[in-house]
Amino acid sequence: MNLLPKLVTLWRNHPEEFTPKRMCKDITSGLVVACVALPLSIALAIASGVTPEKGLLTAIVAGFLISLLGGSRVQIGGPTGAFVVIVYGIIQEFGLSGLLTATLMAGIFLMLMGLFKFGAFIKFIPYPVTTGFTSGIAVVLFSTQINDFLGLNLTDIPSDFFAKWNLYFHHLSAVNWETLAVGLLTLAIIIFWPKKWKALPGSLAALIITTLAVKFAHLEVATITSTFGAVDSTLVWPHMPGEITLATIKKLLPASLTIAFLAGIESLLSAVVADGMIGKKHRSNMELIATGAANVAAALFGGLPATGAIARTATNIENGGRTPVAGMAHAIFLLIMMLCLMQYIGLIPMTSLAAILFMVAYRMSGWRAFRALFKAPASDVAILLVTFGLTVAADLVVAIEFGLVLAAVLFMKRMSDVYQIKNMDDDIFDEVHQKDDIDTKIITHNVSVYEINGPFFFGAANVFVDSLENHKECKVLILRMRSVPAMDATGFHALESIFNSCQKDGVQLILSHVQKPVLKTLEKYGFIKRLGKDHICKNIDISLMRAESIVSGRQHFLE
Question: Is 359 in a helix, a strand, or coil?
Answer without folding.
Answer: helix
